[in-house]
Amino acid sequence: MKSTSQPRDRGIPEATVARLPLYLRALHGMAERGVATVSSEDLAGAAGVNSAKLRKDLSHLGSYGTRGVGYDVEYLVYQISRELGLTQDWAVAIVGVGNLGRALANYGGFVSRGFRVAALIDADPEVVGDTIAGLNVEHIDELEAVVKRRGVSIVVLATPAEAAQAVCDRVIAVGVTSILNFAPVVLSVPDTVDVRKVDLSIELQILAFHEQRKAGGPLMAVDSQ
Ligand SMILES: NC(=O)c1ccc[n+]([C@@H]2O[C@H](COP(=O)([O-])OP(=O)(O)OC[C@H]3O[C@@H](n4cnc5c(N)ncnc54)[C@H](O)[C@@H]3O)[C@@H](O)[C@H]2O)c1
């Protein structure tokens, strides 16, 4: 697996890359409200980071803003989008079209961010052939052919955990190097492949930990014994 702390392309640190989507989301909101320029403080506040970090992050993109004016919102949207590779259209395949896969397929927000759901793939004959969000669900036996034919660059894995590694191996074998994994399993992949994992239950567990602390949970109980 790749380390997440190493600088990547043109020396932009991975942590900066991870914050660029936060800036972009905040900037999109500002652009929609007709805001033309934004100070680093206001953008940092909207993105939930501190402004010194934001200025440092944007300096990696060669963007320094104008003293007393701030950053040009539209231009910064373009710069960040270009850096993230969002000025081109990415074809995404969703493998596993159950509850989660369907919800993702029906979500309209990906397209405006540069991602097009180009294929839906499942193993269940009851599901194959369904039309979801205008796309026909195709059989897992067709995986390699579909990935090639549709020019899929990113695969979203929404299968049960036990199926995920085998699907992952197959899409890597056909040339996919970016995987978004929702299945609760750690995938084993070569260094040339990027895997991002989404796990809502881990996020909930972290919130539960903080809730417990706020309520004076087990730590306090241990202290008082
Ligand atoms: N990361 C998260 O936060 C999160 C949240 C919800 C669910 N999940 C995970 O996402 C996955 C999907 O959840 P769900 O509720 O949609 O489950 P689901 O059972 O409704 O859907 C799974 C789908 O995968 C298909 N499938 C099974 N084996 C396959 C294979 N080899 N190739 C292609 N398709 C195959 C099934 O036919 C089914 O349609 C599960 O692994 C679940 O644990 C993760």
From TrEMBL:
Binding site for NAD(+): 96-101
Alphabetical keyword list: Cytoplasm, DNA-binding, NAD, Repressor, Transcription, Transcription regulation
DNA-binding region, residue range(s): 22-61
Cellular component GO terms, alphabetical: cytoplasm
Subcellular location field: Cytoplasm
InterPro entries: CoA-bd, NAD(P)-bd_dom_sf, Rex_actinobacterial-type, Rex_DNA-bd_C_dom, Tscrpt_rep_Rex, WH-like_DNA-bd_sf, WH_DNA-bd_sf
Keyword Methyltransferase assigned: no
UniProt-recorded Gene Ontology molecular function terms: DNA binding; DNA-binding transcription factor activity
Source taxon at top rank: Bacteria
Pfam families, per database record: CoA_binding, Put_DNA-bind_N
GO terms of biological process kind: negative regulation of DNA-templated transcription; response to redox state
Domain CoA-binding positions: 85-186
Function comment: Modulates transcription in response to changes in cellular NADH/NAD(+) redox state.
PANTHER family given in the database record: REDOX-SENSING TRANSCRIPTIONAL REPRESSOR REX, REDOX-SENSING TRANSCRIPTIONAL REPRESSOR REX 1
The protein's assembly and partners: Homodimer.
NCBIfam families assigned: PRK05472.1-3, PRK05472.2-1, PRK05472.2-2, PRK05472.2-3, PRK05472.2-4, PRK05472.2-5
Similarity-based family: Belongs to the transcriptional regulatory Rex family.
Descriptive protein name: Redox-sensing transcriptional repressor Rex
Species this protein is from: Nonomuraea wenchangensis
Organism classification: Bacteria, Bacillati, Actinomycetota, Actinomycetes, Streptosporangiales
